[in-house]
Amino acid sequence: MRKRHRSRAAVAFAAAAVLGLAGCDASGGNEAAPQGTTASRPSPRPTPVWNRSPGSIAAVGDSITRGFDACTVLSDCPEASWATGSDTGVDSLAVRLLGVTGAAERSWNYAVSGSRMSDLAGQIARTVQRKPELVTVMSGANDACRSSVSAMTPVADFRAQFQDALDTLRASLPRTQVYVSSVPNLQRLWSQGRTSPLGKQVWKLGLCPSMLGDADALDAEATARRAAVQARVEAYNQVLKEVCAKDRRCRFDGNAVFDYSFGTDQLSHWDWFHPSRNGQSRLAEIAYRAITAKDPVT
Q1: Whole-angstrom distance, CA of residue 289 vs CA of residue 203
Q2: Contact between 31 and 25 (Cβ < 8 Å)
Q3: DSSP readout, 73-89?
Q4: How far is the C-alpha of 227 from the C-alpha of 209, rounded, in Å?
Q5: How many other CB atoms are found less than 10 A from the CB of residue 219?
Q6: From CA 22, how far away is CA 13, in angstroms rounded?
Q7: Which of 143, 175, 214, 281 fits as disulfide partner to 153, beta carbons 3.0 to 4.6 Å?
Q8: How many C-beta atoms lie closer than 10 Å to residue 114's C-beta?
Q9: Is 163 exposed, middle or buried (0-12, 13-18, 19+ CB in 10 A)?
Q10: Beta partners for 191?
Q11: 8 A C-beta contact, residue 136 and residue 60
């Protein structure tokens, strides 16, 4: 009998010791658990990878992002840029995200008219000095708009150049977000613009000859040439999608720009190919939707 009492006492003592180590007390465990245990603080909420309200923006790309022919013939008009422009009629992405004052102070346009994907890494190298929270990319049209079909940038080269540009960004700014626009539908732009005699005269100055050359020709050769350019643009957009998908802080527009039906109101009445102010505003709207969406476009 005495052995049983001693055994029960030992068990009770051991149980009390275990409870003490666990931070419980005899009155029901109202005292705080020791510092460093799970009970001492709630689990932190994970920080979202994508910030839908970036505080600064830099734009890279080609003539579209420079607002080419949006204001005057054969001239850049960066104030009308869809990405960083100040034109109230455009309501650029920067203005939508940062406000008028914020856009003036914390947005920068490093795009260059006539540039191709091979130039993108150099533009980004200049961009990283600003340490923007968001970089917008619209590049690739000039890789298809060449003197001939054979002069277009090979798809493999286009992929390597785009990857190099992203690598350049990530080497300096691993957390900066990237919005990538699809290349516009060049064949649709030809179809819209060829109705304008003035536009076709401007095209003869050398604007995208692979697609726009001999604008009224509908023979088999011209049709095949335009189809080849269109297929290359589609391949470029697939590259942009695939490379961007490998970067968790990159969003592709899901071909929204390629799919957009630019009408005569959205095209420059100087060349009937580049976006007008109205067209620039539509590009800003597309970008804003993609950037502020809860989930990326698939």
Answers
A1: 32
A2: yes
A3: TT---GGG-TTT---TT
A4: 14
A5: 9
A6: 14
A7: 143
A8: 11
A9: middle
A10: none
A11: yes
Which residues of the chain register pLDDT less than 70? Answer: 1-48
- Rounded-to-integer distance, Cα 255 and Cα 115, Å: 21
Q: Which pLDDT score is estimated for 198?
A: 87
Radius of gyration of the chain (CA): 29
Other CB atoms within a 10 A radius of the CB of residue 190 amount to: 21
Task: Say if residues 91 and 85 touch (Cβ distance below 8 Å).
Answer: no
Distance in angstroms (rounded) separating the CA atoms of residues 84 and 105? 11
Q: Which two tokens stand for residue 40?
A: 């001492």
- CA terminus-to-terminus distance, the chain: 76
- Which residue stretches of the chain are H helix? 2-21, 93-106, 120-127, 141-144, 155-172, 186-193, 197-203, 209-212, 220-245, 256-259, 277-292
pTM: 0.84
- Topology of domain 57-292 in CATH is Rossmann fold (3.40.50)
Q: How do 134-138 and 177-180 pair as beta strands? A: parallel
Cα–Cα distances (Å) from 168 to 43, 65, 164, 178, in that order, read: 35, 20, 6, 13
Token pair 């064949």 is at which residue?
187
Supply 170's token pair: 């990530």
Supply the pLDDT for residue 297.
79
Q: Give the count of beta carbons closer than 10 Å to the beta carbon of residue 195.
A: 11
